[in-house]
Amino acid sequence: MRFDILTIFPDFFGGPDLGIFGHGVVSRALRTGIATAHTHDLRAFTHDRHRTVDDRPFGGGEGMVLKPQPIFEALESLALTPKPTRDTLRAADSPVKETVILLSAQGKRFTQATARRLATLDRVVLICGRYEGVDERVSQLFCDEELSIGDYVLSGGELAAAILLDATVRLLPGVLGHADSSRYESFGEADATLNAEISENCHPSRSGGPASSGSDESSPQSPPRSTNAAAGLLDYPHYTRPAEFLGVPIPEPLGNGDHLAIRRWRRHAALAKTLANRPDLLPNADLTDDDREFLASLGYNLPT
Ligand code: ADE
Question: If you take atom 7 of ligand 1, which residue's CA is the nearest one?
Answer without folding.
Answer: 148
